């Protein structure tokens, strides 16, 4: 699973970028494995209201793909049905009653293109509410996820505003629970010193910050008064980081991490012979062609989409050959015509018959 942290400046800011979502999408496609669950969390400065963040395929798109539809493409087009099976409401709720802004429309389009879904108003204690994420009652912070990641969300909550953590924003609390495969590496002789948050000692942390708040103000003033080149900004940010780290050490202390280093063996390291790098590349090309066609329904984009949808997996011909050689070609020929349960019954009966014939022949030969 991949988790990305996002900050997009307000659309009226001098730091705003019209291509912010395109840049995030390119980065996500580059880093994300095809089979990997994906999520993004942060301040998108996007007001979406209750705009739909998914697409129900229309007949025109299905007609374009026509006979080239396969399981992979169908799964992508009807991904939203995973929410229905997990009993996640398709319709979101939101306390933010203001009209969606430009970045809000861009966010929902981004979600539609990448099969990502807004969690706010859909799950956890926020289900059916869609609490505002700022003290100004706007909802501009989001946790967006792949559809199959909803089943791992154990807790989702918007924490009440606290000036200690932000001047405007509320915190998003998310707890994910899943099983992972781990291996233990050799223990290092060097024990890393770490700091752990201790809830009962948080007042010490606040006191340590407040008794040196003049230092923080001086650093903030330094940013305002400086020429704001990279060197000055990096130096001030480093000083702020060190200040908060020292306050945490003084408040909670440090301890040696005695736990062995664990490594998660995710889907990215598993190369399937029937779905290799070439297949992954073909699928990315299809998604890219689909995105271009949705943005501009031209003849060229339509033809590109049809070409991109014609790829097939290496194992199809091999599977068909195996079925032919073993006398089960009816399974291939009956695709879509009979239920899978009926196919299982037929396979079981044929195996029983074949085993019975072989056993009878062996008994006859042995009696001679």
Automatic annotation (TrEMBL):
UniProt protein name: Endonuclease/exonuclease/phosphatase domain-containing protein
Originating organism: Mytilus galloprovincialis
